[in-house]
Amino acid sequence: MKNFIKLVNFELNRFFPIYAALGILTIMLQVVGVFITSNDYIFQIEEQTKMGIVKESAIILEIGQMGMTRFTGSLWFGGPIALCVVTLLIYSLFIWYRDWFGKNTFIYRLLMLPTERLNLYLSKAVAIFLMVLGLVALQLVLLLVERQLFSMLIPAAYIKTSTISQIILGSEYLLVLYPTSFIAVLANYSRGFIAILVLFTLILLERSFKIKGLLLAGIYALATLIVLFAPYWIQAIFNRQLFFTSELFWITLALTFVVGAVSIWISHRLLNRRITV
Amino acid sequence: MIEVKQVEKRFGRKKVLNGMSFTANKGEITCLIGINGSGKTTVLNAIMNLTPIKRGEILISGKPLTKETYEKIAFIPDAITMMPSMTIQQAMDFMNDFYTTWNQGRATEILNFFKLSSKDKIATLSKGNTAKVNMLLGLALDVDYLLMDEPFSGIDIFSREQIAAVFTSHLVENRGVLITTHEISDIEHLIDKAVLIENGKVLTEFNAEEMREEKGKSVVDVMREVYQP
Predict the structure, then answer these.
(1) What are the phi and psi torsion angles at B12 (to 5°)?
(2) Is there a contact between A273 and B97 if contact means CB atoms under 8 Å apart?
(3) Domain count, chain B
(4) What are the pLDDT digits (tens) for A83-125?
(5) I want to staple B55 with a disulfide (CB 3.0 to 4.6 A). Which of A205, B8, B198, B225 is the partner?
(6) Does B84 touch chain A (CB under 8 A)?
(7) Any idea what the CATH number is for the domain that residue B183 is in?
(8) Residues in chain B closer than 8 A to A277 (CB atoms)
C-alpha cells in the first residue's frame, strides 16, 4: 500500500508541470471569456440604447437577460474543458509509452521495483483519475468566480441570477461532470475510472504482444463494447423493451464493474507474465 | 546461485534462447560471452522477468523470482533506467524511496569514486557518466547478485578503467556478478567463470583460473577455439 501511494504521488509529480499549465490556461481562457461575453452583452445594450430603446425591460425583451447559460454554452467555456479532456486522454496513452520510447528506458526500473506490478497499473490509473477530479473541482470553483464576475461587470437589472445547480442543469456536459444524484455521481465516475482501466489494458496488450497485441487490443475493445451494451443489443434483437430504465441503469453499471474486474485481472497477468521491455 | 535451466524464447520465428542453461554463483564474477544477437541481453532480461520465456526455469537462490527478489538482485542494463529529466540526487531519492536495500552511504562513496555531481541532470551527462550513474544505481543496493549488461559498451577508455576498477573493489565483494560483454579484454583478468554462448545456447562454460593453470589458456584462447575452430 505504501509503495502504491508513493507511485501515485510520483505519477502526479511527473505530470504536474503540464497539469498546472492546463489549469492556469483553463482559468485564463474562461476569465477572458467572461470579459468578452460581458463586453458583447454591454455592446448589445448600447446598440439598443442608440436605437432609442432606453427602458431596461424593453432592452431585455430584445436581447434577453445575461444568464450563465449564455456563457456555459459558449466556446470560451466549453473550449478549455475540451482541451483538458483531450490533454488527459492523450496523457493516458503517454503515461505508459513515455517509459518505453525514445531515450527513456524507465520501464526497466518500474518493472524491477520490489512491489506488485499491478501497483504500476493502478497507480497510473488513480493518478489520471485524481487529475480529472482536480480539474472538475477547479471548474466548480471557476463557476462561482465567473458568476461573481458577471454580476460585477453587468448592471444588476440585466443579470439573470441563477444558483450553481441551475447553471449545471442548464448545460448537458456540466450535468455529466456534476450529476444531480449521489448514485449518478458514483456511476459516472466509476464508469470513467473503469474506462481508464480498459484503455490501460489495451495498452498493455499492445506492449506485451506488439503487432499481434494491436489485434488483441481491438478484439478486447470490441468485446468490452459488446458486454457493456449487451442489454441494449438484447432488446434490439428481440425488438421489445425487456428492461425498465432503472433496471438498465443497474445492469449496465454491474457490467461496467465486471469489465473493470476483468481488465484488472488481464493486466495483472500481462504485467507478471507477458510484458516485455 | 542463479540457475538458468533449459530456457527457450522466441522473437517471432527466431529462437533467441535455445535451451540455454548455466549457473552463476554468489561470490563469483560470471561472464556471459557471445557475439551480438547471441542472446546475452535476452537471458538477463529473462532472469529479471522483463521478458517472458517459453520454456525452462530460472531460479534465484533456489526460488523463482518474486517481487521480494528485486531486493536481492539488481540489474544494470546498457541504458539508463531513470528518467533523463531527473538529477542524480532525484534518482537516488527514488531508489531510497522504493528499495529497503538502498545504501545511501555506499551511493555517496560511488558518487565520489566516479567523480559525479548529484546536482547534474541525467539528460546532460556524457555516455560514460550515464553508464556510471547506471552502475551507481545498481551497486548501491545491498543485493546478493548483480547483473550487468555490456557495462563497457561505447564508453571512453578512462570511464572503462574506472568501471573495471569496481570489479576489484569491495563494491562487488561477496556478491554474485553476472556480466555480459563482447569486449572481454577489459575484464578478462577479473572473471572467475566464463560462459560462451552462441545462437541462444551455451557452447561451453569453464573456470577461468583453472583453465589458465591447468591448460595454460586464457579466456580469449578458449574463445578462439570455440568461435573460430
Answers:
(1) 65, -120
(2) no
(3) 1
(4) 999 999 999 999 999 998 877 789 999 999 999 999 999 999 9
(5) B8
(6) yes
(7) 3.40.50.300
(8) 45, 50-51
**HSE-CB of A46 using CA atoms within 13 angstroms:** 7
Q: Are A120 and A201 in contact (CB under 8 A)?
A: no
ipTM over 0.90: yes
Of A197, A198, A178, A199, whose CA–CA distance to A188 is shortest? A178
Nearest CA-CA partner of B183 in B206, B134, B212, B150: B150
Inspect the interface and report whether the beta carbons of A276 and B45 lie closer than 8 Å: yes
CA pair distance A171, A82, nearest whole angstrom: 14
Pairing mode, strands B193-198 and B29-33: parallel
Q: What pTM does this model have?
A: 0.91
Which of A119, A142, A176 is at the close of a domain? A176
Domain that holds residue B152: 2-227
Give the tens place of pLDDT for each residue, B126-156. 988 999 999 999 999 999 999 999 988 878 8
Q: Is B12 on the interface with A (CB under 8 A)?
A: no
Q: Which of A6, A104, A105 sits opposite B97 (nearest CB)?
A: A6
Least Cα separation, residue B170 to chain A (angstroms): 24
Residues A149, A46 within the same domain: yes
The boundaries of the domain holding residue A202 are: 179-277
Read off the C-alpha cell for B191.
Answer: 572473471
List the helix and strand counts (H, then E) for chain B: 7, 9
